[in-house]
Amino acid sequence: MADHDYRTEAADLDAADPLSALRDRYLTPEGTDLVAYFDGNSLGRPVAAAADLLTSFVAGPWGDRLIRSWDEQWLDWPTRIGDRIGNLVLGAAPGQTFVGDSTTVLLYKLSRAAVDAQVAQGRDEIVLDTDNFPTDRYVLEGIAAERGLTLRWIEADERAGVTLEQVRDVVGPRTALAVFSHVAYRSGFIADGPGITAAVHAAGGLVLWDLSHTGGSVPVQFDEWGVDLAVGCTYKYLNGGPGAPAWAYVAQRHHGSLRQPIWGWIGRRDAFQMGPGYDPAEGLHSFISGTPPILAMVPLQASLDVIEEAGIEAIRAKSVALTEFVIRLADELLVPLGVEIASPRDSSIRGGHVTLRRNGFREITATLWTQGVIPDYRDPDGIRIGVAPLSTSFDEVVVGMLALRDAIVELDAAT
Question: What does the entry give for GO biological process (predicted)?
Answer without folding.
Answer: anthranilate metabolic process; L-tryptophan catabolic process to kynurenine; NAD+ biosynthetic process
